[in-house]
Design goal:
Structural class: alpha+beta
Order of helices and strands: HHHHEEHHHEHEEHE
Number of helices: 9
Radius of gyration: 27 Å
Distance between the termini: 60 Å
Strand content: 15-25%
Number of strands: 6
Strand order of the largest sheet: 4-5-3-6
Length: 229
């Protein structure tokens, strides 16, 4: 049974209004969930991307239906899918710890553009289902992702220790606690009897919080101060 009247899949005033409203509603649902968490691509960005993509498909459909164009009807939509990459790239950042952020925002923008294409061509069912799925993925699954998947295994720490303690002893104790040392930087320190260094550690136990890791390091004999940086 077809729940959508045939005229709403054609280019007419009713279908144009419906498609733009649906594009706003679907992308607004996704954009609100991102904006509340202060991500790079928020409410207005998703609205613009989805409405713009929907307009592109309607223009493409209009050209084919009213201007007797016999070319590929999906040509303009293909340009949207590839062209949205420049906008997504702008949301990807590399932090000071060389961690990449913004990939989810970039993927969300790309998916929002695809959703707009579905709305623009009159594939309403797919657009609504896609909007619900994107909302679940970006909102409801975020806590699951943070807790079980994206727990960082890297820990960069600043350590001050008694100069009377052998450096090799500090390193040995850290390794004995189950950490792999990826990088070591010895710092010049003007304080007598105190040495300082920066370590980049790979935590083997991903269930251990960084606060617990710092506590273990501070308990090493000879360590005077430790802080995550």
């Amino acid at each position: 049974m077809n729940l959508i009247p045939d005229y709403l899949r054609e280019i007419c005033m009713q279908s144009i209004i419906l498609r733009f409203i649906l594009a706003v509603l679907c992308s607004g649902l996704i954009g609100l969930s991102r904006g509340k968490r202060h991500h790079a691509a928020g409410f207005r960005t998703h609205l613009l991307v989805c409405v713009g993509a929907a307009s592109v498909m309607m223009i493409n459909q209009y050209i084919c239906e009213f201007l007797d164009y016999n070319g590929d009807m999906g040509r303009m939509g293909a340009q949207v899918i590839s062209g949205i990459g420049f906008l997504g790239a702008g949301t990807i950042l590399v932090t000071g710890k060389k961690h990449i952020r913004g990939l989810t925002s970039a993927a969300g923008l790309w998916a929002s553009a695809c959703m707009g294409l579905a709305v623009g061509i009159g594939f309403y069912e797919a657009a609504v289902i896609m909007s619900i799925l994107l909302f679940i993925i970006l909102s409801c699954l975020e806590k699951l992702d943070e807790k079980y998947i994206k727990t960082s295994a890297d820990l960069t720490v600043y350590i001050e220790y008694d100069s009377k303690v052998l450096f090799s002893r500090i390193i040995r104790c850290i390794r004995d606690n189950g950490w792999h040392i990826n990088d070591i930087e010895q710092l010049n320190n003007s304080v007598d009897n105190v040495n300082s260094l920066v370590l980049v550690l790979e935590v083997q136990d991903r269930t251990m919080k960084h606060g617990e890791s710092l506590k273990h390091i501070s308990d090493i004999p000879g360590v005077l101060f430790v802080e995550e940086i």
